[in-house]
Amino acid sequence: MTHIVFVHTPMATVSVPEREAFWRSFDLRYHAAHPGLRHMKNVLWELPHWMTWLAGVLHEAGYTSMEAMDLYASECTMTGIDTERLARVVRATPGDVYLLSPMTPNLPFGLQIADLIKDIHPRSTVIVGGVVATPLHREIAAHRSIDYVVFGRGEQALPELLKVIRKQGDLADMNNVSARLPNGQIYTSKSQYPWVPVNKIPFPKIDLFSPDIGEDIRYLRQVYALGCPYQCSFCTIQTIGRKADYFSVDRVLDEIRGYRRQYGEHHNIYFGDETFTVHKERTLAICDALRDDGTIRYDIQTRPNCLGDDSVLRALKDSGCSWVEIGIETINQNSQDMHKQRMKLKELEETLARLQDSGLTACSFLVNGFPDQSLDDMKRSIDYVCDLIDRELLQASYIFGLVPYPGSQLFAEPERFGMRLLHRDFRYYHEELPPVYETAFAKPDDIYRMFLYGVEQLGAAMGQITTRLDTARLAEPSNYGGFWAGSHV
């Protein structure tokens, strides 16, 4: 029997002292908007959704022996993993096949873990896939400890690859795969499988993790649709499609109920769809079902131009939506036109006001360092979002540094956007670190100083008294956890 081990790759600990006050203020508001939220016992926002998803696919294909090796919260530094400690974990978790799906900044750590696996279990097979493996599949396949890279969607490719491995078949029969041949050359499939319609994807294997991991996480991630119709220069969503493909409403609710039974009925749901409200009728359908259920509180993310219908706002509020995350990114309209599709800022304040009138809590995403921004442009975006918080049109805002991730247009065509990439050391392709590029308007250190200014200013804005959220009951840190304390990512 083939035993499959899913590996959750760790992230490096990054210390940004300015984040402490920011996250404290953010957490106060987040907890106030989510009554009954429990403290995370680990710095782990969510379960690795790809694992339960692909575990369900493999279970349907007849693979019944599998487990998760959760290394995400294992401390490691920018120089690498704790080889001795993680070797003990790998030694205690023998498998025939190891599956890894790292993100860009922890790809180097994933490769180091692959080396450990091969050193300790040399007869095992190591397979990498996911959002960074897709654009870098040939490069990753050249690594000494990687046997195969599955690029693109894996719902069909991964079971087919395992079948070929088991039967010692021919790679020429495979799609969506790159591999290093015995002569050192990299073989890449000439074709890709058609994407599996979402409602034909098997039900996730919800019990892949022990129930007690529910105490480690902030929320349960759920997906209503795969894909996004927009093409933003900094986004890698195109690896799963340009057109939103929707799961049935019954399937979505069945998954939510299953995850909550396994990991805690108290959990809030975070819909990972990048544009949850892009399709009005679909949005109203899921809201009706969530309202009828009556036990589920949830968060969404979307774009301002997808919040123009009052009936959608009412439906969100009536069905238990606690938190609406909105991609603003920058207040420079020229930057919006270049980096985001169909985003017009002139209606932004009106949209936010209507959100407040509907009783919804709004949080924005702000991205610092677009290549066509001067330092003054960056500062104006930060100051404007602080002003929106002061005026209570927003209750909170994230801020992240711009990263040209592999798979994005910025990485593929940096010169087109006025950006020069300085290196490909992916450890530093991190939203909390100085940027890995320079522009005609700013050097990395200058951009990073503006990022830290934004962290401080937004933290101060969120630290002010708000009339829209009851933060008074959270005066003691024991009432809202300690996520803000110490280094984390």
Description:
It is globular and about 65 Å long. The two termini are 37 Å apart. With 489 residues, it is of the alpha/beta class. It folds into 2 domains: 150 residues, 3-Layer(aba) Sandwich (Rossmann fold), CATH 3.40.50; 305 residues, TIM Barrel, CATH 3.20.20. The model has no long low-confidence stretch (mean pLDDT 92). The strands form 4 sheets. The chain has a 7-stranded mixed sheet, sandwiched between helices. A 6-stranded parallel sheet has the order 8-11-12-13-14-15. The chain contains 14 helices and 17 strands.
Number of helices: 14
CATH superfamily of the largest domain: Aldolase class I
Uncertain stretches of 5 or more adjacent residues: none
Q: In the CATH hierarchy, what is the class of the largest domain? A: Alpha Beta
Largest sheet: 7 strands, mixed
Q: How would you sum up the global shape?
A: globular
Gross CATH architecture of the largest domain: Alpha-Beta Barrel
Q: What is Rg?
A: 22 Å
Approximate helicity band: 25-40%
| Biggest sheet strand line-up | 2-1-3-4-5-6-7
CATH topology of the largest domain: TIM Barrel
Distance between the termini: 37 Å
Structural class: alpha/beta
- Number of separate strands: 17
* Mean pLDDT across all amino acids: 92
Domain count: the total is 2
Residues in β-strands, percent: 15-25%
